[in-house]
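PT: before anyone asks, these are the final sequences, not the draft ones from last week. 224 residues across everything. Please model them as a single complex and drop the result in this thread when it's through.
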Amino acid sequence: ETGVTQTPRHLVMGMTNKKSLKCEQHLGHNAMYWYKQSAKKPLELMFVYSLEERVENNSVPSRFSPECPNSSHLFLHLHTLQPEDSALYLCASSRMDRGNSPLHFGNGTRLTVT
Amino acid sequence: GIQVEQSPPDLILQEGANSTLRCNFSDSVNNLQWFHQNPWGQLINLFYIPSGTKQNGRLSATTVATERYSLLYISSSQTTDSGVYFCAVVANTGFQKLVFGTGTRLLVSP
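LR: through. Structure below.
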C-alpha cells in the first residue's frame, strides 16, 4: 500500500538525541494513528488524532510527543529515549466520519536506540 | 478492554497446503480487519470484515459477529504467504481503537 508514507524507514539514535518520525497520507482520511510494535508483543496504540482532537494511550511516556499539523501529516517527536523504546513504529490513517472504515498502515520506521 | 486471541500462534505448512487461522474476541465489534505483515514489517490490509464472508483470490475470511470469532482461510499456500497474520478489532463501545491480537506466524516451505 502506498497511500501512507513513513520516513525514515530506519533510524538509529543515541539516548541523548532528538529526532522526529514523519507520516503522510494521501487517502483523504481524517484520522491518523501511531502504533508501536515491539518484539513478541501485540501492536500497541500510542496516539490517535481525529477531527483535530488528540486521544492518547496513558501508558505512553512523555519522551514521545506527537504533532498533527493537518489531516494529512503526522509526526512523532522523540527525545531522551531508552533502549527499550527500540521497536517498529507504524503510522496509520482512516476515515472517521463515514462510520467505521478500515485502517491503512504505512511501512513503518524501525527505530534502534543505542 | 476488549481481548483478541489468535490461534494457532505458529504454523508451518508445505507449499500448496490449505490452512485456517482463527480470531476470537471478547466483546461485540463494529470493525474487524485481517492484516498480513511481511518479513520487512509492512502491514498489508487483507480484509475489512466486521461480519459476513469475503474472498480475494486464494484468501477468504468469515466473521460470525454473534459468536465473536473470525476465520481466515488460505488455500494453495505459497512461500510468499509467509509472515505474521494479525486480526484487529474495534469494540462497539468507546472511541474507535483498533486492538490487535498477538498474531499467527506462518511459514510456508517449498
